[in-house]
Design goal:
Blueprint: H1 2-19, H2 35-49, H3 52-65, H4 98-111, H5 118-132, H6 152-158, H7 166-174, H8 180-187, E1 194-196, H9 197-206, H10 212-219, E2 231-233, H11 245-251, H12 258-262, H13 270-278, H14 280-295
Antiparallel strand pairs: 1-2
Helix pairs in contact: 2-4, 2-5, 3-5, 8-14, 9-10, 11-13, 13-14
The chain binds protoporphyrin IX containing FE.
Pfam families: peroxidase
GO molecular function, one term: heme binding
Protein name: Peroxidase
């Protein structure tokens, strides 16, 4: 009897170890020692060519992790008999950088065939993008594998939209095991990149918690009708520097999205936003920690999933 219990305990432990295999920063050290430097130089080139690409690559990792975990699902193309996530409302006509990911993947395949997952490429490219734009660095944990599935409906339900209020933002992040501190720190990603008029039109015409001259200047490029795809910078001050100005904007009622300004609108998150305006080191530390937490959301590991050859399609 005691022996049977020991055996079942052993099997349970083995099973747990198999399904919850840990991500490790050293994962490719022997199987593909040049993986990280290959990704880093490709990201540097892409950001040097177009600084916004750093923002677009960072966002891809976020949109990957929030839909059934960081598993490369966001990269899968639709086909006649496969529906990916690219046509989800938050993604369609919005996500970009897929060609750059293809180019990184082919450079990585050239140094080690079918070793490095697309999900890990996104995680590393996100970090390298932040660094290329002057932000903090962190050690990326690796060993994610790629999904053989995608979920359009989960992309639509789980990716937070720009019209959410604070409580819904907190819930969307807590549904992924991320704290309110993570939410506030990760939102600092909006210190880089751009948003389309359609995502902030209501705010600049109808909301009152917005600096009026800021709203007026945005209206010039975002008419009340039409111009849906006209871009504005998410950070009005330093759109291509990864810094803490996003939070300075918020305390001045210059958040571009409704969801941005929700973080500083008289609620429970005001104090953390305010502290980041004067303590950029704290923001850097919290952002790096939150990126690691986000990268840990439900990865496929061990023998789960696959290593895709092309990030756009399952093998
Ligand atoms: C808190 C909830 C969030 C909401 C509601 C949100 C929403 C949005 C929206 C609406 C846009 C503009 C999309 C468009 O115009 O097509 C955008 C852009 C962006 N988001 Fe977020 N976002 C959130 C969190 C995050 C997080 C956690 C990250 C990364 C860690 C991130 C990174 C970015 C970046 C870098 C851009 C600019 C992309 C580019 O220029 O290509 N966002 N976001």
């Amino acid at each position: 009897m005691a022996f049977c219990s020991l055996v079942s305990l052993f099997l349970l432990l083995l099973f747990t170890a198999m399904v919850s295999a840990q991500l490790l920063s050293t994962f490719y050290d022997t199987s593909c020692p040049n993986a990280l430097s290959t990704i880093q130089s490709a990201v540097k080139d892409a950001v040097a060519k177009e600084s916004r690409m750093g923002a677009s690559l960072l966002r891809l990792h976020f949109h990957d992790c929030f839909v059934n975990g960081c598993d490369g699902s966001v990269l899968l193309d639709d086909t006649a008999n496969f529906t990916g996530e690219k046509t989800a409302f938050p993604n369609q006509n919005s996500l970009r950088g897929f060609d750059v990911v293809d180019s990184i993947k082919s450079q990585v395949e050239a140094v080690c065939t079918q070793i490095v997952s697309c999900a890990d490429i996104l995680a590393v490219a996100a970090r390298d993008s932040v660094v290329a734009l002057g932000g903090p660095s962190w050690t990326v944990k690796l060993g994610r594998r790629d999904s053989t599935t995608a979920s359009l409906s989960t992309a639509n339900s789980d990716l937070p939209g720009p019209n959410l209020d604070l409580s819904a933002l907190i819930t969307a992040f807590s549904n992924k095991g991320l704290s309110t501190t993570d939410l506030i720190a990760l939102s600092g990603a909006h210190t880089i990149g751009q948003a389309r008029c359609v995502t902030f039109r209501n705010r600049i015409y109808n909301e009152t918690n917005i600096d009026s001259s800021y709203a007026t200047s945005l209206q010039a490029n975002c008419p009340s009708v039409g111009g849906d795809n006209n871009f504005s910078d998410l950070d009005v001050q330093t759109p291509t520097n990864f810094d803490n100005n996003y939070y300075v904007n918020l305390v001045n009622n210059k958040g571009l999205l409704h969801s941005d300004q929700q973080l500083f609108n008289g609620g429970s998150t005001d104090s953390q936003v305010k502290s980041y305006t004067t303590n950029s080191d704290q923001f850097s530390t919290d952002f790096a920690a939150a990126m690691i937490n986000m990268g840990d959301v439900d990865p496929l590991t061990g023998t789960q999933g696959e290593i895709r050859i092309s990030c756009r399609k399952i093998n």
